[in-house]
From TrEMBL:
K+ potassium transporter integral membrane domain boundaries: 1-117
Pfam families: K_trans, K_trans_C
Organism (species): Vanilla planifolia
Coiled coil: none
Family: Belongs to the HAK/KUP transporter (TC 2.A.72.3) family.
Name of protein: Potassium transporter
PANTHER family: OSMOTIC STRESS POTASSIUM TRANSPORTER (PTHR30540), POTASSIUM TRANSPORTER 2 (PTHR30540:SF6)
Statement: the UniProt record of this protein carries the keyword Transmembrane helix: yes
Any Gene Ontology CC annotation: plasma membrane
Annotated TM spans: 24-44, 51-73, 79-99
Length: 316
């Protein structure tokens, strides 16, 4: 794409002078913007004196401003190209940002109450089918409207329901042990959870298979952790959403992991998922857990055998 654009510019201008004017304005604009932002970084991030930041901006900015004004004189001789490209890209980014904000506001104003979700049952003809349903949403509280429309048109949803919210935080990396925040949506017997997954702007995103496997493993860790830290009675009788808990690998010595096993030997603790055999291991400490926790972990394992299904968005 870059090669095509470069060839198009060369063919369009057919003049190295015009191309040099366009390149010069682009370079000096980047330098001027960098100097301005560096001045802000000196004050906000490096906690330097505002006087020092102002001196830096005046010294370097004044020199770059002279070159910038000289480049603007050549506007009609090729310097218009980078300005046109900048305006075009800014319009695209503005439209994307505006639509994203509007979509979030729509989801926020049309979210469904938790009581509606808990009221869905056999009496209304709602069927809980095998498997794990991942409902992707930007909301960190409440039930997204697209899920309610889905249930209205197709009165069924999965035995294990997970509302997944992916957030990008303004740090380079998020440690794996702090990436997942998991909580319950309603009582424990409803088998509904909320999971917020945090990524830094330099984190490498996992592929779909490894992400889903890691997500299920963190759900199992949360079930154990919740049983050891919170009374079961309060969890079962909860009518609202519980607080979110940071769940990481090997948290508090709890090992409830998903491991890929390439062997073909069948096992009662293994299920097929995306043509690979996935094992869900419960360690010896699980013998000390109460019956309700074991039932919840078994439901999670059984639901995983039914596959993971994504609710990405419903148009009606």
């Amino acid at each position: 794409m870059l090669m095509i654009l470069c060839v198009a510019v060369a063919v369009g201008f057919r003049d190295t002078k015009h191309m040099g004017n366009a390149s010069g304005l682009a370079v000096i604009t980047v330098m001027l913007v960098t100097t301005s932002l560096t001045s802000l970084v000196m004050i906000l991030c490096w906690q330097k004196s505002p006087l020092l930041a102002l001196s830096f901006f005046l010294i370097f900015g004044s020199i770059e401003a002279l070159y910038f004004s000289a480049s603007l004189i050549k506007f009609l001789e090729g310097a218009w190209l980078p300005i046109l490209l900048a305006i075009f890209l800014m319009i695209i980014m503005y439209v994307w940002h505006y639509a994203t904000i509007k979509k979030y506001e729509f989801d926020l104003h049309n979210k469904v109450s938790l009581n509606w979700l808990l009221g869905l049952g056999d009496k209304l003809g709602i069927v809980r089918v095998p498997g794990i349903g991942l409902v992707y949403t930007d909301l960190i509280f409440g039930i997204p409207a697209n899920f309610s429309r889905f249930v209205t048109n197709l009165p069924a949803f999965h035995r294990i329901l997970v509302f997944v919210c992916i957030k990008f935080v303004p740090v380079p990396y998020v440690p794996p042990a702090e990436r997942y925040l998991v909580g319950r949506v309603g009582p424990a017997n409803h088998r509904s959870y909320r999971c917020i997954v945090r990524y830094g702007y330099r984190d490498v995103h996992q592929d779909v298979d490894s992400f889903e496997s890691e997500l299920v493993a963190r759900l199992a860790d949360f079930v154990k952790l919740d049983a050891s830290c919170c009374p079961r009675e309060s969890s079962d009788s909860a009518e609202g959403e519980c607080g979110l808990t940071v769940v990481g690998s090997n948290l508090l010595g709890l090992h409830s992991n998903l491991a890929i096993d390439d062997s073909i030997a069948p096992s009662s603790a293994s299920v097929e998922f995306n043509e690979r055999r996935v094992k869900f291991f419960l360690d010896d400490s699980s013998e000390e857990l109460d019956r309700q926790v074991m039932e919840e972990l078994e439901d999670l394992l059984t639901a995983q055998g039914g596959g993971l299904h994504l609710y990405l968005g419903i148009r009606m």
